[in-house]
Amino acid sequence: MADSGSEDIAVIGNTDLTPSESENNLKNTMVEKGTSLLKRMEISVAEAEKRTGKNAVNMQETYTVYLIETRPVDAASEGTNPVPDSLWRRYSEFELLRNYLLVTYPFVVVPPLPEKRAEFVWHKLSADNMDPDFVERRRVGLENFLLRVASHPVLSSDKIFYSFLTEENGWKETVFETGFQAKADSRLKALNATFRVKNPDKRFAEMKHYGDELQSVISQLLRVRAVGENKRAADRLYGVYKVHGNYGRVFSEWSAIEKEMGDGLQSAGHHMDAYAASVDDILEEEEHYADQLKEYLFYADALRAVCRKHELTQYELEMAAQDLTSKKQQREELATGTVRTFSLKGMTSKLFGQETPEQREAKLKMLETQIEEGEELVKERNEECDEFVKSAWVDIERFKEQKDHDLREALISYAIMQISMCKKGIQVWNNAKECFSKM
Amino acid sequence: MSAGTPRSLASSGQKSIQDICHPLSAEESALSRSPDVLNPSGAGEKDLSLPNGTPVDTSSPASSSSLLNRLQLDDDLDGETRDLFVTVDDPKKHVSTMETYITYRVCTKTTRTEFDLPEYSVRRRYQDFDWLRNKLEESQPTHLIPPLPEKFVMKGVVDRFSEEFVETRRKALDKFLKRVADHPVLSFNEHFNAFLSAKDLNKRQGLALLTKMGESVKYVTGGYKLRGRPIEFAAMGDYLDVFTQKLGTIDRIAQRIIKEQSEFLMELREYGPVYSSWSSFEEELHDPLEGVAGCVSNCSSALDELTEDMSEDFLPVLREYVLYIESMKNVLKKRDQVQAEYETKLEAVVFREDKKTPVPTDVEKCQDRVECFNADLKADWDRWQNNKRQDFRQLLTGMADKNIQYYEKCLAAWESLIPLLQDKQEARGETN
Questions:
Q1: Are residues B356 and B390 in the same domain?
Q2: Which ranges carry the PX domain (chain B) (predicted)?
Q3: The domain that contains B406 carries what CATH number?
Q4: Do A243 and B393 lie within an 8 Å CB cutoff?
Q5: Is the ipTM of this complex over 0.85?
Q6: In the structure, what pLDDT confidence band is assigned to residue B158 with cuts at 50, 70 and 90?
Q7: Average pLDDT for residues B156-169, to the nearest whole number?
Q8: Which pLDDT score is estimated for A161?
Q9: Of A138, A291, B97, B292, whose CB is crowded by the most CB atoms within 10 A?
Q10: Residues 10-49 in A contacting B (C-alpha not used; CB under 8 Å)
């Protein structure tokens, strides 16, 4: 029934899948045994450590490194349990990896990293990147990221990703050598496309809108809970429980002046203390739920990025087509001598006299070439666009399945957590009630 | 602080409880029914009454246990048959040109010969209760007089005519009269008799005002210095001091909890609509998210109820006890005065110096007074301790009950959500 609540934040599901289940890709979108790296390799982010060193501008800085451990799956199942391979990586290297993936696979909804700075954090956990709680939750988030990439049908076979996991030195250089940074679309270009594209695929427009709404709604939920300094739901709940602890003290003091009532009061007070103490676990589990929501908050961004890329490719196709059309028109005008559309050349030739037949001939030839090239370009872009739409939509469908599954699981474990909290509350108050009735 | 909005009391014409049939009376009175006492569900309305007239709160599932609690309260009159039953109910608003005020119906059933009739039903307002208490304090200064709910409420801060306020006051007034009725000495007081039976208290109040002045002089034995309080009374005084302190602390804690809960409730209420709006643009997740929204909403209501209950039922009782203790400390002081007077006069006699010294009979009277006072006070103290124990057992058990109910409601809401959340999964599993 409700025992799936014991799953970890990784929400990857267990890796012991039966062959029949692995056949059904749609169902196990996260772990695709047939194609993903995860079949061959166990991956974990085992530890975090503080380091100090000189940075690029030769200044001392303190930073955190994370230990990535990998181990071939077969070795583990044989029971010999060899020492895993491991290497240390900084958060910035994870960022580099992700940026590389974003540029190289623009049709993929790339899994997000845990937040860079603690934004929606309950006050007990500081916004300090060095805070141990924050580091711990980041470690879990980074592991989750690696597992998601390793189980993705496309991303998992990437060489750079593989070497990220296995080659400590020189990895950065390797990434830069791919020249991925040059392939990145400028923001301006992307924005321009978004505004000017005429016929984007409706499905992508809807998906983008969905991404907007998802981001908005999850932000709201996280904000109600806690945001920065603002003490909201999490803090209030903490207050309710903790103040009950004061009953413990006053009952104890009161019991000192009572004869028959004393024992009952005293023991009831202990239960009030237990009640107060129970809030720490509750808030930790709620933090867990918040982390699950956060992942999809950031996923919404990745989804929108794919949609924007579509708009860009579509726009570039439209631009090429438009350009071709205008060139063809120019050719027609030149050939027939009629001016149907306004062109600066046409105006200047009117003003400064007609061209010579030789000049016209040269122009026509140039136009012909351009038209040929233009047609090639349109064909190319059309193919690109179609390719993109096809592969992006496949990944979007995969993402949808994953999202529905994961969020449902998150809601279930949240409900289970609430049930457990209620049961504990009932138990504590029943215990207190028993003590009171013996007063 | 109650999280809900207070509702205004409707003017005259409000029907409320029906008394149950007096166990000693042969026939039912025209106005009353007799539902089965131990079957709270038999009465559809609030305020069922027990044989001694104590109203029963049937609004919660825990009521049957609190019912039994109240039945057990009668153990201090073990072996004695109760012959005086008093209830306060049926608050009504009266509007006149001069003022607006609330009156309560005070019903009495008794077999005592001190009363002319076996039954009475009169209407009294707070002023009248206040008058009664003052008369009791004056005429029975050696006894502990139960407290009344607070007299003054800040206009504008509290709505004196809201249903919640009136109900809280009614319960306190009812408790006051019951405590007096259960007291072996106070219940025979002539003023108490008048309060219960006289059609119109006004005339007596006028007289009372004059006599009030005169009588109050009697026990203001000013200026006598007390050597030292006897140990047992000193112990009482110490106990009361510490106890008041603890009650004050508990009051503050309870208020703080109510405040935190109310603020938490405000935040909690924001979640529901967000989940709802989320569900509106999801397909597969539509039902689960809508379910969560509903669940959160149910939990919010449950928390609201808990906070209101604590405000209305828990805090007033604490405050009542603080008032009770205040008046008890005053009685202790009075006792000290009486003893001081006696000691001073006794000394003067022993060291007879001038003709002004009082005659021995005067000293004897003082001695009697001291001894009476001490005896009454001791008896009342024991009774008070016993009542206090029961009252607090009931109060704290009630607090635990309310919290249990809150969690049970939330538990039910979340448990019913689980199958809804898992629904699609199982369906898909089957199609595999």
A1: yes
A2: 82-203
A3: 1.20.1270.60
A4: no
A5: no
A6: low
A7: 78
A8: 93
A9: B292
A10: 24, 27
B313 with B359, same domain: the answer is yes
Mutate to test the interface with B, among A433, A434, A435, A438 (most CBs of B within 10 A): A433
- Beta strands A41-54; A60-72: pairing state: antiparallel
Q: Please give the Cα distance from B60 to B127 (Å, whole number).
A: 32
Percentage of the residues of chain B whose pLDDT score is greater than 90: 41
pLDDT, one tens digit per residue, over A321-360 is 999 999 998 888 887 776 555 666 666 666 555 667 788 8
For residue B257, the chain A residues in CB contact (below 8 A) are: 240, 243-244
Which residue intervals of A63-179 are DSSP H helices?
73-78, 91-104, 132-150, 159-166, 171-177
Which range, of A150-154, A430-434, B43-47, averages the lowest pLDDT? B43-47
* pTM summary value: 0.77
CA-CA-CA-CA dihedral for A274, A277, A281, A284, to nearest 10:
160
Distance between B245 CA and the closest CA of chain A, angstroms: 9
A221 touching B (Cβ < 8 Å): yes
Cβ distance of B404 and A429 shorter than 8 Å? yes
B193 and B320, same domain (yes or no) = no
Please answer yes or no on whether A433 and B401 come within 8 Å at the CB atom: yes
Residue A208 contacts B, CB cutoff 8 Å: no
How far is residue B327 from each of residues A159, A266, B133, B379, B381, measured CA to CA in Å? 86, 28, 11, 16, 13
How large a percentage of chain B has pLDDT more than 70? Answer: 71
Q: Which of A117-121, B13-17, B382-386 has the highest mean pLDDT?
A: B382-386
Q: Kindly determine whether residue B285 and residue A408, on different chains, have CB atoms separated by under 8 Å.
A: yes
- The domain spanning residue B102 has which CATH number? 3.30.1520.10
Do B246 and A1 count as a contact with CB atoms less than 8 A apart?
Answer: no
Instruction: Write the DSSP assignment of B169-209 as a string of letters.
Output: HHHHHHHHHHHHHHSTTGGG-HHHHHHHH-S--HHHHHHHH
**pLDDT single digits (tens) B381-417:** 998 999 899 999 999 999 999 999 999 999 999 999 9
Report chain A residues whose CB lies below 8 A from the CB of B264: 233, 236-237, 239-240
Query: Among the three residues B172, B206, B240, which one is the final residue of a domain in this structure?
Result: B206
Residue-number span of the structural domain to which B423 is assigned: 231-431
Q: Going edge to edge, which strands form the sheet with A60-72?
A: A41-54, A60-72, A85-90
